Each structure stands twice: as C-alpha cells, then as structure tokens.
C-alpha cells in the first residue's frame, strides 16, 4: 500500500494486468494460427486481408477478455472471426494494383486443399449455413460441443444440423457424380 493508494488498488491493478497479459499470450500462442487459417479458407484466393482480420479478432478478444469463456476460447474466436469476416465483406473494397505482388508467396497447404474445382462446385450448391457447419468440423476440427457454441445452439441442435448438412452434402456429391457421368 502506498500513501497515495491506502487500500492497495495499484498493486491489484498491476497484478490483474499481468494476469490478463499472460492469458492473452497463451491465447495467442494456442489459437492465432487457427484463426488465421480459418480466415484464409474463407477469403477469395489471393486475398491479403487474413492477417489484418486475424489481428482484429485477437484485438476483440483482448478488449472483451472478460466475455471469452475459459476452456472454450477457440469456438469463441471462430464465432468472432465469422462476425469480423461478415463486416469485412460488407465493406468490400478494391485492391490497388500496386499492392498485388509480382511473384506469389509460398502456397499454404490448406489453400491447396481447396483448389479442387469439384469440391468447390459441390460445396457451392449447399446453403451458406450447411457450408459453414461442414467447414467448421472438417477444416477447423471443431468438436460437437464447440460447434454448438459457435452456432449458438444446443449440442443436440448442433448434432442435428451437422447430420442434415452431411446428408445434403452426400446428395449434392451424388448429383455431381451423375452430372459428370452424363457429360462423359
């Protein structure tokens, strides 16, 4: 306690800030790459905004650190990333030609996985919600409880939504196979 602060608030504030900093450092180390990849997979090929958007998501986590559920940080970050991405798409601005690199960077293996036109075509036939559910599970590896939290529904609701999305994916895939057989 200091004469200026007889009840020790300065020490408590410093200790809280140190704990928050340690929490955020751990959050960043554990989930920054996953958040970045989540955004890369959802942006158009060649988009350079993933790093900035990931930084926005993590800055939101810092500002709202009291709201981030302990033990369920990644689903909260994915949900926040969805909101950040939606806001970014609404702002849709053109990329100046001077910003486009002459030589492409090394390609991320996650980006290579989505280059398959057939997979894109089948996913394109699904609703945005079905695509989101399937990609959260397949690409982002969310567990059922985490999926429920990202979707803002119960675990049973998430299981049902995933089951329906998988059934519609099978149907769309079978329709793709039939269309290729007719064309061949």
UniProtKB/TrEMBL annotation:
Q: Which residues form the RNA polymerase sigma factor 70 region 4 type domain?
A: 117-169
Asked if the record carries the keyword Transcription, the reply is yes
Q: What domain of life does the UniProt record list for this protein's source?
A: Bacteria
Q: Which InterPro entries match?
A: RNA_pol_sigma-70-like, RNA_pol_sigma-70_dom, RNA_pol_sigma70_r2, RNA_pol_sigma70_r4_t2, RNA_pol_sigma_r2, RNA_pol_sigma_r3/r4-like, WH-like_DNA-bd_sf
Under Gene3D superfamilies, the record lists:
1.10.1740.10, Winged helix-like DNA-binding domain superfamily/Winged helix DNA-binding domain
Keyword Cytoplasm set for record: no
What keyword terms does UniProt attach to this protein? Answer: Sigma factor, Transcription, Transcription regulation
Domain RNA polymerase sigma-70 region: from-to ranges: 27-94
**One Pfam family recorded for the sequence:** Sigma70_r2
What's this protein's family per the entry? Belongs to the sigma-70 factor family. ECF subfamily.
This one is known as Sigma-70 family RNA polymerase sigma factor
């Amino acid at each position: 306690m200091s004469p200026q602060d007889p009840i020790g608030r300065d020490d408590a504030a410093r200790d809280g800030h140190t704990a928050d900093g340690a929490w955020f450092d751990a959050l960043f180390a554990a989930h920054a790459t996953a958040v970045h990849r989540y955004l890369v997979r959802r942006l158009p090929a060649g988009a350079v905004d993933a790093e900035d958007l990931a930084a926005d998501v993590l800055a939101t986590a810092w500002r709202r650190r009291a709201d981030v559920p302990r033990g369920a940080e990644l689903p909260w970050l994915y949900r926040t990333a969805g909101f950040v991405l939606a806001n970014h798409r609404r702002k849709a601005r053109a990329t100046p030609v001077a910003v486009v690199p002459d030589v492409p960077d090394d390609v991320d293996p996650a980006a290579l996985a989505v280059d398959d036109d057939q997979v894109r075509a089948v996913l394109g036939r699904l609703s945005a919600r079905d695509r989101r559910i399937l990609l959260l599970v397949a690409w982002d590896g969310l567990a059922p409880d985490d999926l429920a939290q990202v979707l803002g529904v119960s675990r049973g609701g998430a299981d049902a939504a995933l089951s329906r999305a998988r059934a519609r994916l099978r149907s769309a895939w079978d329709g793709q196979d039939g269309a290729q057989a007719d064309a061949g």
